[in-house]
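Q: I have 250 residues here and want to know how they pack in 3D. Can you give me a structure?
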Amino acid sequence: MKSSKETIQSLTLEYDSGIIPPPYSHVFHMELDWSGASLSVKLDLHYTDREELSEEEILDEGFTLDDDYHFEGELNPVWIEPIQALYQENKWSPRQLDEGGIVLYPGQESIPKTPVNQEAWQLMAQDLIQAIYETNKKEAPLHINYRLVTNEESIDCKITVHFSDRNVILSKGEESESINWDYAIQLMKLIFTPDYHYEIAKEKPGTKRGAYIDCGDGLWHELGKGVVNIDPAFDAVGKIQERFEDLLLG
């Protein structure tokens, strides 16, 4: 394995989801170029093997019948430094990806390189795609609402994640502040780790002692009842509560 320390001004990412079944299976090709004063981006995303499914099966999973996406334009240059930093940290694997994953083409190189840290690059790519969706008005910023009800009071807050400019806003009442991007993204990963029981979700937050969360779709779930851990060895629900209590009470 070799680490990459050279300076680059462009990077191409190619991804294949591998053995993930449709309608989730997809591939994408993303070209990034910051040789000028801006960050130029080209994205081609294609969902695969959907001919195996009926329209109803695709729609039931929350997709549309045309989720393929093309974008050619510019992103906020605030993304350049994180891309460069991740590239500088990277080590290469001599192995090929037989079951899917991401490969990189640094600069003008035509031979793909396989990064050892697949998860970090896949997360970076997901964040960039989300930034593209926001920039092109395909999707709005992510909103997470949270309510903590104690014996003494009820405290509400909202986290708004702007992928377009890597800015996260925490709102409590009339006050708002920016919070650390990496901290917020780790919190988002925690939030979407447990199992959500939508059959008992409510349109309004609870008023009894407990913690309640709305993941942006207007439906409220009570942590520990409507939100439960999938892996008994990892208390994601407890960690979500701890992180929000730090934000609300810290």
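Q: Anything worth noting?
A: The radius of gyration is 20 Å. Residues 118-135 form the longest helix (18 residues).
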